[in-house]
Every structure is written in structure tokens, then in C-alpha cells.
């Protein structure tokens, strides 16, 4: 039996254990918001201790977390150093999730296994890759062959808020500096680039007044409507802008949340909107932010009694390919063909992820892990999120074989 065959055989022999591990990881809730995620990190640290591993707990200061809008963050680094002379590869998955929402037919934190699927919030994005990466590394170490370099497992807890207190914090604190990164993704596609994202909170201040005498107030909602019209009026123009990155099309813009008003019979004195502008890799985020702010301010310029306050919630840069990343892609594609039996594409995605933070530090990063061909198939961020167990098995093998390429002597 070849070394590669031994590696994949170990994964098959321990696959029931891997599924049971993933069930445990799913069963500890990490709804973000509110973002009380330290208990999940503590649970994962205890689980990997059972494999003889030490998980370093890097607690983000409480005030920093509260100012960020979350309750608790403990990021984990599991370092597995091998012999001298090889690279360090970091494997990053995030444990925070959007709240389950309505419409589930399975318990969102049950980790139910049924008809070849595992169900639960983050079954596909990205608690599954806690299992993918841990069991890929366990399989590699179980070979007993000489290895060079090292692996670091980065389990972080604020991707839904942008990653600045997850990978961003670990990198800024100089707690890690890997040579390559594989971050959570799906089994049939390697993501090599992704969009940038700008999120703004727009507060329209007016003045409340009695509904029977609307002229006594300044209607914030009426002013907000002008802003909405300006934002959505831009969409045809954005559609004309095209990215040259395969898998990425045009910039997008939307308002995802609106809150305001006091009562049905009161002129709204304040309206708060949250908007999202996705930028293709070719766009300059700072220039886009300036354009969007000007668009909003111009929409209500000269409106009597109206004041607009614009607060940036997030400005995330794009992930772009870096020198050396092609070696990761080539290895993942080679093993993807062998394990899955089809060509594994490498392209961009219109989503954004915290892998970009490694890229900002000059570290080549790609997204690859367990999941279906497309996000909609996984029900990610919707009810009944699910993962095909065979996709978990295949991705674990592909990652393990790639690690062997880079770290095997």
C-alpha cells in the first residue's frame, strides 16, 4: 500500500469518528449576533486535547469585543511542528454563525445525520471544516513518516463580523505567520479570489410630529426614501462594470435592514438603514466608499430639517492571488481529480471571507474544504443547512494529500 493509500485508508477507518466529532462541534451554539463564542472555543480545545493536542487560547480583550458588537471571542491556534526545512501551512475555519432563523425541519443545533447528510447551522459553513482539517492532520500524523515544516490550525470566531478580531487579530498580534493558508471552502471548487465589501450604517435624523399635523415634523422616512432611490438607481450602472476574474461578475449594492419611526400616527423622526456594497477585485475600496458617501449625502442635500450620519460598519479588501498560491491550487486540483474523479475548478467568488486578512499580510491563501458545488445547495445561512457526508470524506482526503505534498520528506 502506498503512503497516499495509507492516508486515505486511515480517513475511511476513522470516518464515523469524524462525523461524531462534527456533531459535537455543531451542537454548541455560536449565534453571531449576539456573538458569545468563547464557550465553543473552550469546547473545541477540550476535544482536541483528547487527540493529545494543545490548543492555545487567545482571548480577545473584553472591551474590544464589546465595542465590536459581540460578547466574547477566544481564538484557537493548534501548532503541530514537524522537522526543519519545510513550510508552515495554516488551516483556518470559523466557528461563528448567523442565527438559525425560522423554517427548520431539523433542530438547528442537533447535528442530525439522515440519508447521508448531516444537518445543523454551520454544517456546511464552516464548522464542517473544523472536522475536515483536524482529521486531515490526524491522518497525516498517523502515517508515522518523517515530515518537515508544520501545520497550524486556526479556529476563529468573528467571520460574520468581518474577521478583524479573528485571523486579523492573530496576525496583528504577531501570534502567527504561516507560509500558506487553506481556509474553509467547498469540495468541488477552490476559491482563489473574492470580492471586497463595504457596509455602512446610515442614520437619517429628522423631527417627530403628530400624524394629523405632519407639517410640524421633518419626515426622516421620506428623506430615507430619496437615499434608497439613489442607491437602487445606481444598480444598472454597476451591472455594466465587469470583473476579469472567473466566477466574479459585477459589483452589487443593497440595503439589507431598515429600522425607524415611533408609531403609526407619528411622523418618523429617525430612520436607520444598513447597506452592503460588494466590490470586484479591480475596484479601489477607498474610492468606492467616497463615491457611496457622496451619493447618500447628495440625495438629501437641501432637505429642510434633515441630517444624515454615516458610519462604516465594515470595509474588507478583496482576496487576490499571490505568488506561491498556484502551488497550493495545483496540489488541491491534482488530489481533487484523484479523490473526487472530476476536475476541481479554481476561480473567484462574489462572497467575501476572512481569508483576505492573510492575503493582506502577503500570505498566499485559498479557500477549500467540505461542501457542495454551490452555496444554495448547502442551505448556508438558511433553514436546514446540510452537508453530504461523502463531501466531508472527500475533502478530508484531498486536504490530507495536499499536506503530504508540502510537508512530506
Write out key terms for the chains shown.
alpha/beta; 25% strand; 4-stranded antiparallel sheet; 409 residues; single chain; elongated; 13 helices
Mean pLDDT: 96
Helix content: 25-40%
- What is the straight-line distance between the termini? 18 Å
| Count of extended strands | 17
| Largest sheet features | 6 strands, mixed
Give the count of helical stretches: 13
The unreliable regions are none
**Order of strands across the main sheet:** 1-2-6-3-7-16
Question: What is the string of SSEs from the N terminus onward?
Answer: HHHEHEEEEHEHEEEEHHEEEHEHEHEHEH
Oligomer: single chain
Tell me the Rg in angstroms. 23 Å
State which percent range the strand residues make up: 25-35%
User: What is the overall silhouette?
Assistant: elongated
Q: Could you say which structural class the secondary elements and strand pairing correspond to?
A: alpha/beta
Would you write up a description of this structure?
- The chain has 409 residues and is an alpha/beta fold.
- It is 35% helix and 25% strand.
- It is built from 13 helices and 17 strands.
- The chain has helices at 3-13, 15-27, 38-49, 62-68, 128-142, 167-172, 220-233, 235-239, 285-299, 325-340, 356-360, 375-378, 389-407; strands spanning 55-59, 74-81, 83-94, 113-114, 117-119, 148-156, 180-183, 189-194, 196-205, 209-210, 252-260, 266-267, 270-279, 307-316, 345-349, 365-367, 386-388.
- The strands form 5 sheets. Strands 1-2-6-3-7-16 form a 6-stranded mixed β-sheet. The protein has a 4-stranded antiparallel β-sheet with strand order 11-13-9-14. It has a 3-stranded antiparallel β-sheet with strand order 4-5-17.
- α7 packs across α9 and α10 (325-340) packs across α13 (389-407).
Amino acid at each position: 500500500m502506498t503512503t497516499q493509500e495509507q492516508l486515505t485508508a486511515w480517513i475511511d477507518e476513522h470516518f464515523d469518528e469524524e462525523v461524531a466529532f462534527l456533531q459535537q462541534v455543531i451542537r454548541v451554539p455560536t449565534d453571531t449576533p449576539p456573538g458569545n463564542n468563547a464557550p465553543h472555543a473552550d469546547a473545541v480545545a477540550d476535544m482536541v486535547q483528547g487527540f493529545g493536542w494543545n490548543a492555545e487560547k487567545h482571548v480577545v480583550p473584553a472591551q474590544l469585543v464589546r465595542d465590536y458588537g459581540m460578547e466574547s471571542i477566544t481564538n484557537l491556534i493548534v501548532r503541530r511542528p514537524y522537522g526543519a526545512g519545510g513550510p508552515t501551512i495554516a488551516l483556518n475555519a470559523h466557528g461563528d454563525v448567523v442565527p438559525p432563523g425560522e423554517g427548520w425541519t431539523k433542530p438547528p443545533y442537533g447535528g442530525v445525520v439522515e440519508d447521508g447528510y448531516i444537518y445543523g447551522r454551520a454544517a456546511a459553513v464552516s464548522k464542517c471544516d473544523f472536522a475536515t482539517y483536524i482529521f486531515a492532520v490526524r491522518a497525516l500524523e498517523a502515517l508515522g513518516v518523517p515530515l518537515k515544516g508544520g501545520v497550524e490550525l486556526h479556529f476563529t470566531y468573528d467571520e460574520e463580523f468581518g474577521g478583524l478580531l479573528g485571523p486579523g487579530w492573530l496576525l496583528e498580534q504577531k501570534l502567527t505567520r504561516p507560509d500558506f493558508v487553506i481556509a474553509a471552502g467547498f469540495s468541488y471548487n477552490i476559491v482563489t479570489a473574492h470580492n471586497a465589501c463595504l457596509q455602512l450604517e446610515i442614520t437619517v435624523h429628522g423631527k417627530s410630529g403628530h400624524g394629523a399635523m405632519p407639517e410640524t415634523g421633518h419626515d426622516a422616512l421620506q428623506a430615507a426614501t430619496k437615499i434608497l432611490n439613489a442607491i437602487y438607481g445606481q444598480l444598472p450602472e454597476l451591472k455594466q462594470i465587469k470583473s476579469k476574474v472567473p466566477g466574479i461578475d459585477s459589483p452589487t449594492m443593497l440595503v439589507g435592514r431598515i429600522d425607524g419611526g415611533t408609531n403609526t400616527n407619528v411622523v418618523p423622526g429617525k430612520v436607520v438603514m444598513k447597506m452592503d456594497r460588494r466590490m470586484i477585485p479591480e475596484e479601489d475600496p477607498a474610492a468606492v466608499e467616497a463615491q457611496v458617501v457622496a451619493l447618500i449625502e447628495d440625495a438629501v442635500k437641501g432637505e429642510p430639517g434633515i441630517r444624515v450620519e454615516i458610519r462604516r460598519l465594515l470595509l474588507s479588501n478583496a482576496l487576490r492571488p499571490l505568488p506561491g498560491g498556484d502551488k497550493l491550487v495545483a496540489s488541491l486540483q491534482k488530489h481533487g481529480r484523484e479523490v473526487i474523479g472530476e476536475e476541481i475548478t479554481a476561480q473567484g467568488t462574489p462572497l467575501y471571507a476572512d481569508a483576505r486578512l492573510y492575503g493582506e499580510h502577503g500570505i498566499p491563501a485559498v479557500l477549500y474544504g467540505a461542501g457542495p458545488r454551490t452555496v444554495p445547495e448547502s442551505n448556508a445561512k438558511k433553514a436546514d443547512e446540510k452537508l453530504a457526508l461523502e463531501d466531508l470524506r472527500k475533502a478530508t482526503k484531498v486536504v490530507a494529500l495536499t499536506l503530504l505534498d508540502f510537508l512530506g520528506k
